[in-house]
Amino acid sequence: MAEVAGRRIVIFNLGGEFFALADRCPHQGGPLSAGPVMGEIRSDCPGQYRYHRPGEILRCPWHAWEFDIRTGRSVCDPRRVKTGSYPARLASGAELALQAETFPVRVEESYVVVEI
Amino acid sequence: MNAPTPRARLAPGRPAAATLGLIDVDIHPRLASWSDLHPWLSAEHRMRLAVYGTRPRHGYVKGPPYHKAQPLACRRDAWPPGGGTPASDPDFLRAQHLDHFGIDIGILNPLSQGQGERNNAFSAALCHATNEWQLAHWVARDPRLRASVTIPYEDPQASAAEIRLRGGDARFAHVLMMSRTAQPAGHPHYWPIYEAAAEVGLPVAFHAFGYSGHTMTNAGWPSYYIEEVSEHATSCQNLLTSLIVEGVFVRFPSLRVVLIECGFAWLPSLGWRLDALWPTLRDEVPHLAELPSETIRRHVWVSTQPIEEPDRPEQLVEIMGWIGWDRILYASDYPHWDFDDPRFAIPAYLGEERRAAIYGGNARALYGW
Amino acid sequence: MPPAIAPIDCDLHPMVPGLEALRPYLEPVWAEAIDQRGLEGFENQSFPPRAARNLAPRFRPTGGGFPDLAALQAFLDETGAECAILNCLYGVQLIFNADMNAGFTRALNDWIRAEWLDRDPRLRAAIILPNEPDHAVAEIERLAPDRRFVQALRLVAGNEVAHGRRLHWPVYEALERHDLPLCLHAGSAWRHPPTSVGWPSWVMEDVAAQAQAFQSALASLLTEGVFVRFPRLRVVLAESGVSWLPPFLWRLSKTWKGVRFEIPWQSELPSETLRRHLWLTAAPFDAPQELLPRVLAQLAMPDRLLWASDWPHWNEGAQLPPDAKFLRDNALAAYPRLAGGTAP
């Protein structure tokens, strides 16, 4: 969780790739940072379950809508429902000399850069 | 009711349109532990609770028969930082819910705390203890909270005694029943409950939940929780049909009924269906003297959560208009997962006057606050 | 004078005058049972046959009894129907003994074929389905070659096990293969109480509860993935009341958004799936006439409503505008076996 330029942003590290989502469900404004993450559960046929991408789906803590952490898009209605998402990457401290809106994740040389 | 306090008006989550007060008719307090009820239980019932637990009309020792979509069916952010389960900590409930949304009055509806228990005497003891617990643990700590008279509804005589005991105590808002009773709610078996409620002037609220023991649909058991959620609406349709057709409102003309967490968009259709049946079956039900939809319009209130979400919002407005703008009450369902934030659940397109009525005006008129 | 558009009547109920009527069509073991066991008939409490609701005063034969073929023919002449689908509601579904249920159901279907279909070219019928899935599949295979059977009928509260559950899937496979819609008609086989809160006191409650039965049946078919597995299966809801459907779809779709992972084979809004697979007879249509346009807009299924007389039942409710779609074209789309023309 970070507050950047007045916006609450929730940042995920998926195996070294960083993703940043607005901390606000587009449905009723639930705080996404309080929601659990889970795998993506799909099916091609009743009775079959495909479980993959563990930890890459975020569920809103309120009405349990699922969002793809990589895209911010709703699993139920990816075309029309999306939570705010921001490009995020890991950058070295030196590279960031001119970047204002950053959020340090470690007290080292690297920063998560969130472009809003 | 007192005017909203300045503190309530400044709450970050309070909708500006709540000009007639913000009243939440559905908050679910939880026991931190069953032992919280010990002060009001006999040694025998304490033993029963410890050894055998409660025995609702389903098979599990722990947990519900249809597994919820979230732990304890609760908002993930409602677990108190100090430990315990959602809505078991009055301070956290106060901060996260009452203060955050600026709620002026919140009605406590305890669930599964002895209602529907198979042993009638145990059910009566648990419900009585739950009512004392609401007063001591909640209402005494925050004057914004009101208690429900929980009753052992499968024992109507004991229920009536509990209702009469609480009648006249302004800390109680209504009598609370679960929607899934063991017989349809209008059956004369339950009439002592309605007689007592009418006598002491308390509305009877039916909250969607409980286990009747009967098959959950009339063509067999569902497989999925999503079906059970859907079935809450149908069982409420059944219970209201029963109240109407059995003539409960003919016998108790001052009785007022509140349907909580039942959904409400189905209500006009049910009224139309009963209206259409009435002329074709009038010889069977000569005790009904008016169109069922008229009875509904006069005696039934609904709460908003879970509010239906049609693709076209104007269709929700139509439905609410058909039910009656003076009959709809705001409910949050805190701390459950399908909780409704008052700012978004009661949308701005309804208009300021209607929103104000739903937020507070209608509940004040119903409950006399 | 016949109307400009010859309608297709999608729900009529021939009444079995008594068990003796079925005797010529029964296998000996079941015919013997009538005598040896003193069977009294299978009239279903869902449709008390002497109630005005189920035998409207204007259809009562002057000499008593139930309306016969001649009465139906006179009625069809009156409405100008080009074609009429018989959905017999004689309560064979109530029989607990599965073999006996199948035996009497076969006889009932043969009675419908011989005493009604063979005697008027305007008539079509539903295959009444036996209760056990294997019996039901066998009955579909036996009768499907006769294209005057245009659908197969189950009572909406007629099952022990919910409609969507996998033990019923062989039936849906057979129906899909033969282009036969599944007709779910109001009514119960009384395997469970009429409501999830037990046994009501009054017929009026039983009838009202059918609207809830339809909701449960659709929830089961949808959540179990029947339409994912059988994408060409059509379902016709008969005598459902209709106006409960939009709020039901809203609620089911709303819940799905939160618990989709429980039924991951359902990958679109439940309302979209159901709107694609459903047709509904509009007798009755539970709504006041003046609100009908708004309820129809909520329903948003103008191509899916079917005209039905519900003969000889008596219904009250809204009347839809008698346009060609409602009277005829929608039925031709719903019933593939009618689409090539109604000549046998």
3D structure, described in words:
The complex is a heterotrimer of chains A (116), B (369) and C (344). With 116 residues, chain A is an all-beta fold. Helices cover 0% and strands 43% of the residues of chain A. Chain A has no helices and 10 strands. Chain A is globular and about 45 Å long. About 10% of the residues of chain A have low confidence. Chain B is an alpha/beta fold and 369 residues long. Chain B contains 13 helices and 8 strands. Chain B is globular. The mean pLDDT of chain B is 95. Helix content of chain C is 39%, strand content 12%. Chain C has 14 helices and 8 strands. The longest helix of chain C has 18 residues. The mean pLDDT of chain C is 96. Classes of the chains: A mainly beta (116), B alpha/beta (369), C alpha/beta (344). Chains in contact: A-B, A-C, B-C. At the A-B interface, loops of A face α12 of B.
Task: Examine the coordinates and then state which fold CATH places here, giving the name of the CATH topology of chain A.
Answer: Rieske Iron-sulfur Protein
Q: Supply the number of structural domains of chain B.
A: 1
Structural class by helix and strand composition of chain B? alpha/beta
Q: What integer is the average pLDDT of chain A?
A: 83
